[in-house]
Specification:
This protein has 234 residues and is of the alpha/beta class. It has 9 helices and 5 strands; from the N terminus they run αβαβαβαβααααβα. Strand 1, helix 2 and strand 2 form a beta-alpha-beta unit. The N terminus is likely disordered.
Length: 234
């Protein structure tokens, strides 16, 4: 697993024990996720890579559907701006298609999520069907022409992780966060290849509505944005 380092420990201590001194930070970055466990924990890993006093990164899990994530992001942006007494520089919303095509109500809420995000100038890192597709791309290519149900993504990810001798007894459960999952992704996965694979999927589905674009993940755009800002401030 990536070394969290003293910077993350310092940031965590600062957040819990005394008010954040926002004037020290040059850039405010907000990520609001659908998932309450794996996704925030994944993005938390990038906090360890941020040079001190440059980027303030806040990642929040909501447990809401896509529209609910975007609506929560509006509130969280207001909260952060009030705390920092300045505008938030960049807001990303992270959500999955999941079963959004199950009925008319869910379809509308999924569509609304994109419309509201655009009106609020939020960047969208969506996945069809699930965030775990992004994790899977750290290990293998997936056929851009063959839709993947989320249960297949879970199984493929499980199988790839079990191929690593140290994790032969690994059992993937998308309902809980297993620290070993991120240990595998950051310690054994190929992020650069994942970005390239995700880009291929995105380009292939560029003319499709998000609800029909499967397999697709745009999480790589958020990851690349984080990496670019970290490089800029380093």
């Amino acid at each position: 697993m990536a070394n969290r380092g003293s910077l993350k420990k310092f940031a965590k201590k600062e957040t819990k024990e005394r008010p954040v001194r926002f004037r020290r930070y040059k850039y405010l970055f907000l990520i609001v996720c659908e998932d309450q466990k794996t996704e925030p924990a994944y993005f938390e890993e990038y906090a360890a890579k941020i040079p001190q006093d440059t980027i303030y990164l806040r990642q929040i899990g909501t447990g809401r559907d896509p529209k609910g994530v975007v609506q929560r992001a509006i509130i969280e942006r207001q909260i952060l701006e009030k705390e920092a007494k300045r505008e938030v520089d960049e807001v990303w919303v992270v959500f999955d298609k999941d079963d959004a095509d199950e009925n008319a109500t869910k379809i509308k809420r999924f569509t609304d999520a994109f419309q509201i995000a655009e009106s609020e100038n939020f960047e969208v890192a969506c996945s069809n069907e699930v965030f775990e597709l992004w994790l899977l791309l750290h290990f293998i290519d997936v056929d851009k022409n063959t839709p993947l149900h989320r249960t297949e993504v879970y199984k493929f990810l499980h199988d790839e992780i079990q191929k690593i001798p140290k994790f032969a007894d690994y059992e993937y459960d998308h309902k809980v966060i297993d620290p070993r999952t991120l240990e595998v992704i950051f310690g054994y996965g190929d992020r650069d290849s994942a970005i390239s694979r995700a880009q291929i999927l995105m380009e292939h589905h560029s003319e499709c509505e998000p609800i029909k674009a499967n397999p697709l993940t745009k999480v790589h755009l958020l990851v690349q944005a984080l990496l670019d800002w970290i490089k800029y401030f380093s």
